[in-house]
């Protein structure tokens, strides 16, 4: 067989990525050879594959959930915003253009061909391909050029399941309205709904589920309960606004407090996931100098716009706070774009076109931006531990002194590296946090038995369990095997199905 399914959502962050990952794990556990696919992704969280190509981090994670090697063909088009109007276009793992929102439309026709060929390739190799949509399929202003939602479903004749986030409120209106706004040929492929993040008595929900079925002629295929701890490689910063279990955690001597600067163009903030999984570590995102004051470690993370985000850091008074604490011997870590900011100077004729800019001057380094993007999976060591990472950047950092630290350097309590993903190395993470705690004067001791890879696998299994226990898997399998039923009614806006 060569089955497929498209998981769409009523909004961004409705749960499409999590449901897709859960379906991939459920199918893999059934012995099905399955792969994820997202035709077009707009995200600043990306990853480098084993063969040196760039792809969305969420699709990389979904491939891991499916138990297959992540490949750029699983995310053929990746858009990386550098401002409110301009994005870098990455096609099959390589950057091909910088375009504004209107110019991007000129590329849609050939990108449609890339998407079709990519999906066809996967469907020839795998028994099932679980596709993920983007945003909402009811973004009718974008429908004409759509290659990721109903445009993809029509192209590949995929049945569509729409996920709605009940925690936001208005889930019934969102699910009904999503279908009602679609043209009849698109509606014909929408075969059911999934309600996500439900907490409470399901008996109270049942009348609404039944009424939605009567109004649309489509079943609710399952209700997924609210589940903490499923923060899986998010695609956008909406995930940073979600409540986390440590949000109000009290600080004690045995707690390590980490403040991560929330840049406007923050990228690869998944670097923080392994830190947040460490018992006794509290990770919070910071947007003002006061948010940094009491932290034991301040992290300047990656960014898609180093120069403009450095200007933002200065405008908000946060740069002065970072410099002050560094000079007091209080820990600061810069990763990729954050590492670049710590240098003495930055020469950027490429990303921002600004030219020469003064850095924070906390590390003896200089940065020159080049037109070619560096993509790699480097390996090294620090603290006597082996370290695997990945790098995605245009800025080349030349280190001119200090104590070696991975590919960067350390001066006092300031560390800098271009490598992402280093904290996922358990031994290195523990040694680094132990050093930070001693430097900050904390009593924190890293847990010796926390393995990030094992935690990630446990999360994949938890997602598979959610699918098995709370979705009508027989109905889902029929959709994958046979496609959308041929008798689905048209839902006119504001009314019952035209039967």
TrEMBL record:
One Pfam family cited in the UniProt record for this chain: CbiA
Family: Belongs to the CobB/CobQ family. CobQ subfamily.
Keyword ATP-binding attributed: no
UniProtKB keywords: Cobalamin biosynthesis, Glutamine amidotransferase
Active site: 336 (nucleophile), 420
Pathway annotation from the record: Cofactor biosynthesis; adenosylcobalamin biosynthesis
Function text: Catalyzes amidations at positions B, D, E, and G on adenosylcobyrinic A,C-diamide. NH(2) groups are provided by glutamine, and one molecule of ATP is hydrogenolyzed for each amidation.
Domain CobQ/CobB/MinD/ParA nucleotide binding: 6-230
Listed name of the protein: Cobyric acid synthase
CobB/CobQ-like glutamine amidotransferase domain boundaries: 257-427
UniProt source species: Actinomadura montaniterrae
Gene Ontology molecular function, alphabetical: ABC-type vitamin B12 transporter activity; catalytic activity
Gene name of the record: cobQ
């Amino acid at each position: 067989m060569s089955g497929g399914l498209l998981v769409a959502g009523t909004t961004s962050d409705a749960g499409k990525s999590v449901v897709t990952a859960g379906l991939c794990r459920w199918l893999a556990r059934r012995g099905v050879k399955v792969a994820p696919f997202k035709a077009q992704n707009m995200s600043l969280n990306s990853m480098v594959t084993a063969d040196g190509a760039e792809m969305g981090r969420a699709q990389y994670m979904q491939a891991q959930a499916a138990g297959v090697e992540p490949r750029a063909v699983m995310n053929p088009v990746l858009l990386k915003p550098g401002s409110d109007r301009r994005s870098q276009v990455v096609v099959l793992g390589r950057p091909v253009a910088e375009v504004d929102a209107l110019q991007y439309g000129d590329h849609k026709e050939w990108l449609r061909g890339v998407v079709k060929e990519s999906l066809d390739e996967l469907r020839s190799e795998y028994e099932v391909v679980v596709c993920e949509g983007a945003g909402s399929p009811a973004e009718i202003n974008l429908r004409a050029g759509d290659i990721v939602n109903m445009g993809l479903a029509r192209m590949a004749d995929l049945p569509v399941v729409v996920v709605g986030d009940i925690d936001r409120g208005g889930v019934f209106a969102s699910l009904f309205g999503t279908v009602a706004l679609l043209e009849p040929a698109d509606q014909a492929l929408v075969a059911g709904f999934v309600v996500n993040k439900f907490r409470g008595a399901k008996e109270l929900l049942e009348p609404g589920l039944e009424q939605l079925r009567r109004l649309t002629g489509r079943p609710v295929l399952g209700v997924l309960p609210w589940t903490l701890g499923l923060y899986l490689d998010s695609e956008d910063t909406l995930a940073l606004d979600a409540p986390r279990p440590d949000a109000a955690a009290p600080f004690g001597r045995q707690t390590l407090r980490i403040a991560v600067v929330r840049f406007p163009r923050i990228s690869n903030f998944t670097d923080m996931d392994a830190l947040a999984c460490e018992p006794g570590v509290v990770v919070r995102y910071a947007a003002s100098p006061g948010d940094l004051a009491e932290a034991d470690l301040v992290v300047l993370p990656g960014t898609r716009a180093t120069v403009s985000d450095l200007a933002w850091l200065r405008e908000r008074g946060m740069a002065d706070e970072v410099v002050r604490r560094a000079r007091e011997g209080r820990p600061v870590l810069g990763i990729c774009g954050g590492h670049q900011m710590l240098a003495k100077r930055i020469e950027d004729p490429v990303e921002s076109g600004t030219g020469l800019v003064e850095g924070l001057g906390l590390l003896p380094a200089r940065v020159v931006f080049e037109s070619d993007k560096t993509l790699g999976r480097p390996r090294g060591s620090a603290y006597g531990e082996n370290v695997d990472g990945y790098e995605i950047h245009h800025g080349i950092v030349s280190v001119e002194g200090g104590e070696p630290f991975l590919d960067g350097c350390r001066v006092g309590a300031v560390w800098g590296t271009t490598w992402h993903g280093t904290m996922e190395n358990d031994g290195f993470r523990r040694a680094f946090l132990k050093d930070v705690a001693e430097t900050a004067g904390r009593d924190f001791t890293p847990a010796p038995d926390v393995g990030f890879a094992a935690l990630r696998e446990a999360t994949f299994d938890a997602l598979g369990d959610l699918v098995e226990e709370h979705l009508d898997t027989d109905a889902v399998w029929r959709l994958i095997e046979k496609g959308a039923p041929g008798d689905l009614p048209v839902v006119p806006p504001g009314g019952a199905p035209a039967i």
